[in-house]
Design a protein that fits this description.
mainly alpha, Growth Hormone, Chain: A, globular, transmembrane helix, cell inner membrane, transport
Length: 387
């Protein structure tokens, strides 16, 4: 079997999973508003996802490393996604939505991280760019945001479960065809995880990174409501996500060309600075078309930041603990950052509006870029001294 053929199920998994992810990210806040929840309550529901992720991602990552399989863990999680989503979308009332949401996110949150961890390892095995695999996730995200946005504008936001189940079923089918990873080592023990927690550069990097990733997650949660505040509809929200993710797909696809020229931390810091500028520009917008036009910056911010940060983390952790380390990175990027972003964002957009929310995000991203610059300077000096 050629490399291209062996990677086709993995690319299709990333395509279909990120297509489901789009539907939740782009339209769940509008769906919850339709169900009668206010901005702060929507913030609580969106914070349940990252809370579940903090528990679920290290748990499923540990199980993956322990039993040396990514494929079987993915099968369990995607089956759980399909069953729990049906329950989640039936719920009414904040408490019922929160409880069903926790179970739903417990299964869905690790899928992206496990898919990317498998993609990173397959790319290393085949000596190709990880971006060339990961770009299929972005394409799925982009296609779904455009099509589903138009469909929901026509049929109504209350029917968003149907496109969700369609893409989820495709993800389950292609996972059966995946090529699993081969790890030649003893099964991971719980004591090994302590090695990661005691890895000071790894933990410091995750902490400083959070000042930037929190802003990314807050924008993910509330950009739909902000576009609605500025006078846009579901179709425009879909177009905004399409523009953003199309630029992200381009950055991932071309990663092999731009990516190796400087230290990966330089790219992380650069993306942090652009994040800050991006949020200040969003804060100043008074028309939804400005947000859509500025969404091309999503590729330059998230695309560059995510690829470079994942690569940096991969170098910091031993190969035995790759799944666990990647999912810890994921738990901070999408978990802890998501809780802070959702709760803070919900309160800010409720009390002061979207413009104020984005101004605060701009300040936080600038602080993160500054901390990472200091971190990079100090680690580089230490390495020079040790040589």
């Amino acid at each position: 079997m050629s490399n291209d053929q062996s990677l086709t199920p993995l690319k299709m998994l990333l395509f279909s999973f990120h297509a489901t992810n789009t539907i939740i990210l782009s339209f769940l806040p509008l769906y919850l508003e339709y169900k009668g929840l206010d901005g702060t309550e929507i913030g609580w529901v969106l914070a349940v996802g990252p809370l579940a992720a903090i528990i679920a991602q290290p748990f499923w990552g540990y199980m993956s490393d322990k039993y040396k399989t990514v494929k079987n863990i993915l099968l369990i999680c995607i089956a759980g996604l399909l069953v729990s989503s049906v329950v989640f979308f039936q719920m009414n009332g904040l408490i019922a939505i929160l409880l069903a949401g926790f179970v739903f996110y417990f299964f869905t949150s690790p899928i992206g991280g496990l898919g990317d961890s498998l993609g990173q390892r397959r790319a290393d095995e085949l000596r190709i760019s990880f971006g060339s695999i990961r770009t299929w996730g972005s394409i799925g995200f982009a296609v779904s945001s455009l099509i589903v946005g138009q469909v929901l504008t026509t049929i109504g936001i209350q029917y968003m479960i149907w496109p969700y189940l369609l893409f989820g079923t495709i993800a389950l089918i292609v996972t059966f065809r995946l090529t699993d990873v081969n790890v030649e080592s003893d099964p991971v023990q719980l004591s090994d995880i302590q090695r990661l927690i005691r890895n000071k550069p790894f933990m410091l990097f995750l902490l400083f990174m959070m000042f930037i990733t929190m802003t990314h997650r807050a924008s993910d949660s509330f950009i739909g409501l902000y576009i609605a505040q500025l006078g846009g509809n579901e179709g425009l929200v879909g177009v905004a996500w399409f523009v953003g993710v199309a630029s992200e797909a381009l950055v991932f696809a071309l990663a092999g060309r731009w990516y190796r020229k400087y230290h990966t931390l330089i790219f992380v810091i650069f993306a942090g600075i652009v994040y800050s500028l991006r949020w200040f520009l969003y804060a100043a917008a008074d028309d939804p078309m400005y947000i859509i036009a500025l969404q091309f910056l999503h590729g330059i911010t998230f695309g560059v930041f995510y690829l470079a940060a994942l690569d940096y983390v991969t170098r910091l952790i031993p190969s035995l603990l790759q799944s666990t380390g990647h999912l810890m990175f994921y738990a901070v990027f999408f978990g802890i950052s998501g809780i802070i972003g959702s709760l803070l964002g919900g309160a800010l957009i409720d009390s002061y509006g979207g413009g104020a929310l984005y101004a605060v995000l701009g300040c936080s991203a600038a602080a993160g870029a500054l901390f990472l610059t200091v971190y990079h300077t100090l680690t580089t000096r230490r390495q020079v001294r040790q040589m």
